[in-house]
Amino acid sequence: MSTGRPPTFAALDTGAPAGGAGATLLLVHGWGGDRHEWDAVAAALADRHRLLAPDLPGHGATRARPGRHTPRLVAADLAAWLDAGSVGPVVAVGHSMGGQVVAALAVDHPELTRATVTVATGFGGTATLDQLRSEQAALEREGAAWAARFADRASGPATPPEVTERHRRLLAAADPAVLAAYREAMYLAPDAFGRRPAAEAFLRGRRCPALALHTSAEAAAWEAALPGHPLSTQLTWPDCGHYVHEERPAEVAALIEGWCRRVAAVG
């Protein structure tokens, strides 16, 4: 039975900066990560913005919420959390699976979403259903061992070894059932929008300005061809691995800061 209480998240909250606040930023981590992957980006932005960086359910210090480990339900829980704190609208920034979460926040809760930034986004993939089902079966069969290897596959030539090792540890320590539930919801569930055809349909509901940072020029071109807000922008950093915001945090922070200024300039 519901108590009517808003969901709670373990989270970084820097509060409003002393010199006056720019946009409030919601920083959403990816699959198997936690809020601390934003630490270096947050350090570069905290003097100008209030920053909220939650651990998503079943990640970090936020307890699992069985039955709600989907991007849209997590977005709904974040919306309730923001409402309870009288926060919003925010510029919502999401890495990987967090990109799906902030896209869902923009589509389902537009009143709380001033703009979005997606980094190495978790939607628009071209993997076949057979491939995704095979990978899901391997995750469910091997559990933490399969999840931990994701960190190696996701790293690029310039990824600092400590970043890869940190994600390997996080994934190995995560509850495999939680990871499997999220991955199913992203790519294989009836309402999943991780694959390209479903993403194209879902993102038509995104009305706010959207900045997308891709590591693939083809993926950036795909998103650029979608209908969207006239300010929406797609960028490609092809020399990065999956953990772009940890590989190049100063540059990602500068990109977010510039985007906030651009959005603010048009009201």
From TrEMBL:
Keywords: Hydrolase. It comes from the Bacteria. Residues 25-254 form the AB hydrolase-1 domain. GO terms for molecular function: hydrolase activity. One of its GO terms (cellular component) is membrane. InterPro entries: AB_hydrolase_1 (IPR000073), AB_hydrolase_fold (IPR029058), AB_hydrolase_sf (IPR050266). SUPFAM superfamilies: alpha/beta-Hydrolases (SSF53474). This is Alpha/beta fold hydrolase. It comes from Streptomyces mimosae.
